[in-house]
Design brief:
By secondary structure, the chain is α/β, with parallel strands linked by helices. The chain is built from nine helices and eleven strands.
Length: 307
């Protein structure tokens, strides 16, 4: 998970409040609004999809997903369009409330390819997994988005099974930056003593040959990331730096690597999120074209963290 500094995201609150406009207060209420004795009303699903990512249920004491999750999903989506034939299988490592995997499926549907994908979201926090399931139901994606409660390092995954992996790992060293108020939020933000190794090991084992692993990471840790990926024969193939605005240093990097692929890295043009550094700077047209899910904040140019 990644946080951009307040100087590049005007108005960003440090933590979410209980009066959050983006999250739901209770998963049972969420499901009851979506389901009826006669089945799920299509209007409710349509409304939930139109509002996405607003309205997603997140644990009151858990980590709130950020803009990086949405950017990761849309970075991966064009490379994962399903072809005719068998359904394609994806794995969302550290799924949290399911936002990356669900956004990936919605982006695929918008491109006319979503029905060909099945995504499994894996997370070690029970509250997060419950939210991910509830969010899948709310969006009408429960048949194509499943969950697994497990630590990545302990997950029993089929070898050479998945056609793509999505990964928004905790990538800050322990003690780097501000700690969070709860253990759940700290677990999502700060890596443990194993670091990225369990995620890389899982990708190496479970991905099919030439299948992609998509990650979002800190630019200052990019050399170590690329070395670790290459050592596991997950060849970096595509990369894009993300900047708060034109004069700002890169604050996150999106990386696609492929299992057993040949060397050759395509560095895409940088993505600029805001048109300026002022408090009222709007999101750029480029950012909105790249990630339409950011439209919910386009007018107010609010902070990176989806509260």
């Amino acid at each position: 998970m990644h946080d951009l500094p307040e100087s590049e995201h005007p108005g960003k609150p440090e933590q979410s409040s209980e009066t959050d406009l983006f999250s739901r207060p209770d998963s049972e209420d969420l499901i009851s609004e979506t389901l009826s004795p006669e089945g799920r009303p299509s209007k409710a699903v349509d409304a939930a999809r139109t509002a996405f990512p607003r309205g997603l249920h997140q644990p009151e004491q858990g980590y709130r997903f950020s803009m990086d999750a949405l950017l990761l999903a849309t970075f991966a989506a064009p490379q994962g369009r399903a072809k005719a034939g068998r359904p394609r299988r994806g794995l969302d490592l550290g799924t949290g409330c399911g936002v990356v995997g669900l956004a990936f499926l919605l982006a695929q549907e918008a491109a006319g390819a979503g029905a060909g994908w099945q995504i499994m979201g894996l997370d070690r926090q029970e509250a997060m997994v419950a939210c991910a399931r509830a969010n899948a139901v709310r969006l009408g994606l429960e048949e194509r988005f499943t969950t697994l409660l497990s630590d990545v390092s302990e997950a029993e995954l089929n070898d050479n099974w998945y056609d793509a992996m999505l990964c928004n790992p905790p990538f800050r060293h322990g003690g780097q930056g501000r700690s969070c108020a709860t253990a759940g939020r700290n677990a999502a933000r700060f890596e443990d003593e194993q670091g990225l190794e369990p995620f890389v090991r899982a990708a190496r084992a479970a991905l099919r040959d030439k299948a992609p692993l998509h990650l979002v990471y800190l630019p200052e840790r990019l050399p170590g990331l690329l070395s670790q990926l290459r050592a596991a024969r997950l060849e970096p193939k595509r990369m894009r730096m993300v900047h708060g605005h034109a004069r700002a240093r890169a604050r996150m990097v999106l990386v696609e690597s492929r299992k057993n692929a040949r060397p050759g890295l395509d560095v895409e043009p940088p993505l600029l999120l805001y048109s300026g550094s002022g408090a009222q700077s709007p999101l750029t047209r480029e950012a909105l074209a790249f990630c339409p899910f950011l439209q919910c904040n386009a007018r107010s140019a609010e902070a990176d963290e989806v509260r």
